Recover the amino acids of this structure.
């Protein structure tokens, strides 16, 4: 209902209050996000779940989607901080009006529609392409370790699991024996409505922890067995190929892979699907977040999360994801030394993509220096628990000739010949914008599927910011240079 304010002076007319959307300027990001979600984004998967008339009317799902996307653009991720901003900040009020949702509503909406919210990445990406911000002339691939919502101190090694589980089970057995001997005293202590046989909370906690340790131990054993079987299968296929080509594997035959876990292999009890990974900050409980960035306007054209601490297995699926998302291949792809292998370079050749993959440290790529290293921590050793794919044969181990260098050697010469004019580049500025400027350094959610959805929203927010800078919402056309 419209109201008027009393005028300060008798001779002045009564003034109407401003509409809540007028709290921010017409070109403000909050207005852009809200209008974009209302007019350009398809939210049928989310809105269809609110067809029922039972219960209290829900908050408008279009408004809630715009609120979450705008919050991620502003670097605000926790539901309590989002709810607080809706009560205190005019830019957030311009989206939710004066009916601010509480933090439980925000958290539940994100949890309930996480998959659908993550799928918005493709829609925003296509809008960026329509706005002329995606060229696919050159894309850059890289990964970064993002901390999981779990402490590495909540992990336990396989070697320690058996010992600790036995200790806990023995301790529980002693307590149960004492409890059975004191049934009469417990009847008096607990009252007539209790049998006296109830297990005390402190006993139940120990028992549950022992069960969790046994479960984690069994999971490590299953993972080790699966990894050994996969390695044997890959070795058998490689042997068949060598026999078909009339080649022999140099050196002594390798010992068969062990089906038992490494004694130092760890399992985290807070987020069992996260992994101990080496980063610039040391060993952290984390996931490996991957992005491919178009060099034209730093638009993320493909993204994913992996549990592997190494990047080598991600070049092919991430490159293929570009074509899945946009229907076409990039002209050039650059990546750091963590993605360099004979198989990866061959895969780029087979896809007719011009590759620039460093064969040494990323900072030495334009100089042609040969140094091993990973994109996040060059030259750093992997933790004992890391599951590394089968290593590619070193170029020196292959028969070489001047007429037929290995692909790695050819790539090294290619980048060195280009020097500083080489198109080799990395998407590190985008990671800086996400982790430094917007403060996303740790996942809020737990579990591999949830983390993938959350990373997709983070990347969607990044593209949304780039779209707001390069698109005129009123005309719905790309801005001219």
């Amino acid at each position: 209902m419209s109201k008027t304010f009393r005028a300060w002076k008798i001779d002045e007319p009564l003034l109407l209050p401003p509409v809540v959307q007028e709290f921010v300027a017409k070109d403000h990001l909050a207005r852009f996000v809200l209008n974009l979600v209302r007019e350009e984004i398809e939210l049928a998967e989310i809105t269809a779940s609110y067809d029922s008339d039972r219960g209290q009317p829900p908050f408008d799902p279009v408004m809630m989607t715009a609120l979450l996307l705008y919050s991620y653009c502003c670097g605000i991720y926790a539901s309590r901080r989002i709810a607080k901003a809706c009560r205190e900040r005019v830019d957030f009020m311009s989206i939710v009006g004066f009916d601010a949702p509480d933090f439980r509503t925000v958290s539940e909406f994100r949890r309930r529609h996480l998959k659908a919210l993550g799928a918005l990445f493709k829609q925003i990406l296509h809008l960026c392409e329509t706005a002329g911000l995606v060229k696919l002339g050159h894309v850059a691939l890289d990964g970064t370790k993002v901390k999981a919502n779990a402490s590495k101190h909540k992990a336990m090694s396989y070697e320690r699991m058996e010992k600790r589980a036995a200790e806990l089970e023995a301790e529980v057995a002693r307590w149960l024996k004492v409890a059975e001997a004191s049934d009469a005293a417990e009847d008096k202590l607990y009252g007539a409505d209790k049998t006296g046989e109830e297990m005390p909370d402190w006993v139940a906690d120990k028992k549950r922890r022992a069960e969790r340790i046994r479960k984690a131990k069994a999971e490590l054993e299953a993972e080790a067995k699966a990894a050994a079987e996969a390695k044997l299968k890959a070795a058998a296929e490689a042997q068949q190929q060598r026999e078909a080509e009339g080649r022999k594997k140099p050196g002594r035959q390798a010992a068969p892979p062990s089906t038992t876990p490494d004694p130092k292999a760890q399992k985290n009890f807070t987020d069992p699907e996260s992994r101990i990974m080496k980063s610039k900050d040391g060993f952290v409980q984390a996931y490996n977040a991957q992005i491919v960035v178009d060099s034209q306007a730093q638009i993320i054209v493909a993204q994913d999360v992996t549990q592997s601490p190494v990047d080598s297995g991600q070049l092919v699926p991430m490159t293929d994801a570009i074509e899945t998302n946009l229907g076409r291949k990039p002209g050039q792809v650059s990546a750091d030394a963590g993605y360099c292998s004979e198989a990866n370079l061959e895969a780029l050749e087979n896809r007719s993509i011009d590759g620039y993959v460093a064969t040494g440290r990323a900072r030495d790529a334009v100089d042609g220096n040969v140094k091993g290293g990973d994109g996040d921590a060059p030259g750093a050793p992997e933790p004992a628990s890391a599951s590394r794919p089968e290593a590619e044969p070193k170029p020196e181990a292959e028969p070489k000739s001047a007429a037929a260098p290995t692909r790695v050697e050819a790539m090294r010469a290619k980048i060195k010949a280009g020097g500083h004019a080489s198109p080799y580049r990395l998407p590190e500025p985008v990671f800086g914008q996400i982790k430094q400027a917007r403060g996303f350094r740790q996942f809020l959610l737990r579990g591999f599927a949830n983390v993938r959805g959350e990373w997709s929203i983070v990347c969607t927010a990044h593209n949304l910011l780039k779209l707001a800078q390069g698109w005129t919402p009123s005309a719905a056309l790309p801005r001219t240079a």
Summary: Residues 1-10, 362-401, 472-481 have pLDDT under 50 and may be disordered. The longest strand covers residues 282-294. The CA atoms of residues 269 and 385 lie 15 Å apart.
